[in-house]
Design a protein that fits this description.
- The chain has helices at about 5-15, 20-25, 45-55, 120-130, 140-150; strands at about 25-35, 35-40, 60-65, 70-80, 90-105, 110-115.
- It has a 6-stranded mixed sheet with strand order 2-1-6-5-4-3.
- The two termini are about 25 Å apart.
- It is built from 5 helices and 6 strands, in the order ααββαββββαα.
- It has a single domain (about 5-150), classed as Nuclear Transport Factor 2, Chain: A (Roll), CATH 3.10.450.50.
- The radius of gyration is 16 Å and the shape is elongated.
Length: about 160
């Protein structure tokens, strides 16, 4: 396997837009997992769902380090929240920080993606934004229920 230019990979990732572009980073059968998404091979579905909540989501890779078949990167992401409770109106900005560990195949395509982020920070921002708009959900679970429904019974590796 040739060495991956992780800085170039990071810049390509930062410039990618939309579910199809995200899915193109993955090898067939590649998996995705984060604190609210159980491990799934439906990476396009993950990206579609994210786009439905944050239509203008962008991520900046702050630091990336890796070897021949793996990388770790820290990121800052942000977008306009348009998810549960904010479907109507202009939405509001949310910014998240996290870290991702990926494994890649011989062609540099992702076989395993695992995101780590502070879900409390995300929920706090969303709750504050909804309260400011006068539309706060009654329970935190109201914000994540659509994720759980989307991935219930989804493909598992």
């Amino acid at each position: 396997m040739g060495s991956v230019d992780w800085e170039a990979w990071a810049r390509r990732f930062e410039q990618s837009r939309g579910p199809e572009a995200f899915a193109a980073f993955f090898a067939p059968g590649g998996t995705f997992c984060d604190p609210v998404t159980p491990t799934t091979t439906d990476v396009r579905g993950v990206a579609e769902h994210t786009a439905g909540i944050f239509p203008d989501w962008r991520q900046r890779v702050e630091r990336i380090r890796g070897g021949d078949s793996w990388a770790f990167f820290e990121w800052t992401g942000g977008g306009t929240y348009r998810g549960p409770g904010a479907e109507e109106g202009p939405g509001f900005p949310v910014t998240l920080e996290g870290a991702t560990v990926i494994e890649v195949d011989a062609d540099g395509r992702v076989t395993r993606w695992r995101d780590y982020l502070d879900t409390n920070a995300a929920l706090s921002q969303v709750t504050a934004g909804l309260q400011a708009a006068g539309a706060a959900p009654g329970e935190t679970s109201d914000l994540t229920a659509d994720w759980e429904a989307h991935f219930a019974g989804g493909p598992q590796p």
